[in-house]
UniProtKB/TrEMBL annotation:
This is Response regulator transcription factor. CDD domains: LuxR_C_like, REC_NarL-like. Residues 162-227 form the HTH luxR-type domain. The keyword Acetylation does not apply.
Length: 229
């Protein structure tokens, strides 16, 4: 998981360490400028291709990787799959122009914690990085609806398998899973379900263990695959 919750000696939260991966130097420069303007975020490195990601992650130990999808040698999907299979992997935020929805969904299934459009306003980019670093996916209800609308509904066998996996959850865990699929934050889930944020986090942790998933985005996708949202 990301290290945003790690504390430094003076009691303040350590800044979020970000690695930018994009084959366009201008995009990398623009993102670096946006992120560096925040006092709680530091850009620790850049990479121009997915093939460079493993080495860059080993060198820079980022908490969050901003990952482009379309790159010439190793694309962001393959790089995300490789990265998320590593122990103590950083969180991944996929960058997209949104004309490749099927690739975005595959990246989310591979373990990415969400995605950003390349024309996302700077303030929203900063907010997304902070959320992902704190362990919360950046997948708003609006974006979720747009993404799912661009993806064909799963075939009946796939829907059945997804529903069977969710059947192992307790009623409360199922409520939390449905809320995750609606793009709700921990605070929103706590309010809606009348529980503490700590309890929500505990339920999310148990969900990930029971369902053998990497993050809350994959829970949301599974719920959508089961046809429950």
């Amino acid at each position: 998981m990301a290290a945003m919750a790690d504390m430094i000696d003076d009691g303040e939260r350590a800044p979020v360490r970000v690695l930018i991966v994009d084959d366009d130097a201008l995009v990398r420069a623009g993102l670096s400028m946006i992120l560096s303007a925040a006092s709680d975020i530091v850009v620790v490195g850049e990479a121009a291709d997915g093939a460079e990601v493993p080495g860059a992650v080993s060198r820079h130990a980022p908490d969050v990787v901003l990952m482009d999808i379309r790159m010439p040698r190793v694309d962001g999907l393959a790089a995300t799959e490789t990265l998320r299979s590593r122990p103590q992997a950083p969180e991944v935020l996929v960058l997209t122009t949104f004309d490749a929805d099927e690739f975005v969904l595959r990246a989310l299934r591979a373990g990415a914690s969400g995605f950003l459009l390349k024309d996302t306003p700077p303030a929203e980019i900063l907010h997304a990085v902070r959320r992902v670093a704190a362990g919360e996916a950046t997948l708003s209800p609006t974006i979720t609806r747009q993404l799912i609308a661009h993806v064909a509904a799963p075939a009946p066998p796939s829907r059945t398998r997804a529903a069977e996996r969710l059947d192992q959850l307790s009623e409360r865990e199922r409520d939390v899973a449905l809320a995750l699929a609606q793009g709700r934050s921990n605070a929103e889930i706590a309010t809606d379900l009348h529980m503490s944020i700590a309890t929500v986090k505990a339920h999310v942790s148990r969900l990930l263990i029971k369902l053998e998933l990497n993050n809350r985005v994959q829970v949301a996708i599974l719920v959508h695959d089961a046809g429950l949202v």
